[in-house]
Fold:
Amino acid sequence: MSVLTVKLRRDLARRPAQLIWVVTLVLLGVALYGASYDAYRNLQASYQDIFDRYRFADLTVDGGNTAAIARQAARTTGVAAVTVRTVTDVPLRVPGAAAFPGPVVGLPAGGEPAVDPVDVLSGTYLNPDAPDGMLAERHLAQHAGLRPGAAVEVWQHGSWRRLTVSGVVSSPEYLWPAPSRQDILPAPGSFGVLFVPETLARQIAGPASAPNQVLISYPPAARGHAARLDASLASMAQREGAADSVTRAGQPSNAALSEDIKGFAELALLFPMLFLGAAGLAAYIVLTRRVAADRTIIGMLRAAGFRRRTVLRYYLWIGLIAGLAGAVPGVIAGIAAAGAVTHLYTKAIGLPLTVVSARASTVAGGLAFGLVTGALAALAPAFSAARVPPAEAMRGLVPATRGGSGLLARAERAIPAARHVPPGAWLVLRGPARQPRRTLYTEIGVVLALVLILVSWGMLDTTRVTLSHEFGQVQREDAQLTLAQPASGPFLASLARLPGVAAAEPSTQLPVTLGSGPSSYATTLIGLRTGTTMHGFLKPGGGTEHLPASGLLLGIALQDKLHIRAGSRVTLRLPSGRSVTATVGGFVDEPLGTYAYASLSQIHTLDPTAQPATVLLRYTHGANRAGLRQLEAGTVRGKLAVTV
Structure:
């Protein structure tokens, strides 16, 4: 056994605490990396497995000649399956509760569709012999407590129709219950989805209704050129009168979850790097102190004939051993934690299946992180130890050069008042000044610890500020009342006279696709009074904006996405399939969603068939909101939904 090996063993036996802390920090950093990064990859794999198993649509086309669109899509090379169905937004109501809006989606009663089938979690699939049977999407079922045999009512041509729950299902379209790209955080009880037989969906939509949506799926081999297929099929659908074409990436649920996964991916690397940085700093400090403590021994070893590279290799090995000792258990702990984190995450958002696997790349990355952290931390002390001349090292801690006056000593002589500082204070100040590098590293460690805390606080503060701006300065209404027929003046006056209601304003909401050149964006066009008090318009640079009588106010994100500015002309593709043009009057900066706004008169000019079928309500201070919801539900005939 070599002399240095004996020294290492004795050092570990005499002073184990320092290296144990280094090993622990490396272990935590590697385990956090493995848990977070593998959980991120597991979630990606879970989503992809769900999309593949349930043949999630790559392109969804709304409106137009759906039969012709489906025929042409089926003949297109690279298309695996096509499904045509009816989707209609109507009010839904669980007996004893307030109504809420939601889509009713048609499915074949005799079997699953070729694209976007559902997973039955409880109960049974649709039965052709039960024309009033339906499937409740699991988010709605969980919130309303629906089970097979329960009843849900849908609004059909002026009256409520009672349907019976056949089963509770999960759908790849609603892994996250997002009504639209602009509304990805609906309030509980304000949105729900029902799946019904296709014939029943057409009855609910109207006597002369026809399928209004086409779902197109690509095989896995064609996903490499999905963008080309999307553009080609969307162009074909537009020629056939389609109102909108939504890619898989733009589908509301998938888009919301993708943003969540993207944020998860950033944190999956940020926090482990902070921990590993702290571990490297701790290892550096520990090894620097070891070199200082071993100064006399190093001099003796060098005088006895040990070469510089031998001493260098010895201290470098200490760092590598500490890194490896922390990395190996860290990798194992990370694999176990990744599975637990994945299950907790998928359970929280309700994924129907979970994919958990250990990846060789993550194991290799964890081991590499640990070894590199230990090696880099040991490198500088190792070079310092190897460069020490034997005669100087054997002096111990006495410097070989002439001592000089430090910064504090010069300050004491230059500033007369400094001579009156108590000796105890000078003792405290001179300690950090004698070891400036050690002081600097301690400060860096404190900064890293604060970063970990402040990042978490910053995320919470950002959420609070975002919600405060959105619901304090932008959306100022307390409730939205959606009607089956336009809101007249007398009707608004009757609402305003309800006890607890301070004001009522009409509003129009139209799903549109904004276009400028080759770029387009699907959003909602919201019509309001020019002097509305229900909505605030925040300028991108600060301040507020007024809704102009003519022209559109657009979300600031559309400025770069559509390459437009104030005064530009944009094309609006309406739900009917007709296209009109309008002028951009300005831009607004809103925390949640990217909408388009126009005055009610401007919307009537763009689409004379559009009517203000939404009422925005503001309550008086201290109003009984729960009681008002019931009062409005009992007072307003022909209502669709009340959303607080």
